[in-house]
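Hey L., structure's done. Input below.
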Amino acid sequence: MSMDFQTRNEFLDYLSEYLTENRRQLFEKVIRFRTRHITVVLEDIYQPHNASAVLRSADLTGIQDIHIIENRNRYQVNPEVAMGSSKWLNMVKYNETEDNTLAAYDALRKAGYRIVATTPHTNDQTLDEIPLDRKMALVFGTELNGLSDTAITHADEYLRIPMYGFTESYNISVSAALTLFTLTEKLRKSSVSWRLSEEERLDTLIEWAKRSIKHADLFEKEFLQKRKSRE
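Output:
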């Protein structure tokens, strides 16, 4: 949105007039717990049930952004499982290059993230051990094969969830839920500055409001026209 901070504040106030009081209060409550300090990366997830369950877990633990790598599989959401969570998340897809995993890693590193592959590895760390001082992008792989060799080789760090049974691994949706719940709980109790910036907070609230109002693009045009007429 090509508006300065003050104009965006005014636009949010304008949109808020068309929201119920309950919706406005809910937005204010939820935004306090949103974070971009931790983000989620999904590589080639193809089962809609699991893909949707990860979105639901991300929303419930305060994660705002989901990065979706589509190399062989297209990401599909099961709305009955997602329970509307996709409406409140920012989803960024990588599907335009020959190896979208490397493209995603490059973009995330430029945004200040370290790449943490969720897979057992020689130098892996557990949920209790991994530090939270720097922004992290948690990478989850397919249900059948896990992460690709590229995703593992080019990661900065590795994370594993301890297992004490006979089964080889957790289901992807369970793995994501355990990881996100544990790390966001630790994050909120830490001294790390994990909340959204004022700019991010404002833009997120505007996006949520627009997604709650039918024909929001028309409201935006009306707002800009009214503001221009006052200048």
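The chain has two domains: 1-32+195-231, 37-188. Strands lie at 38-43, 65-69, 90-94, 114-118, 125-126, 136-140, 157-160.

-- N.
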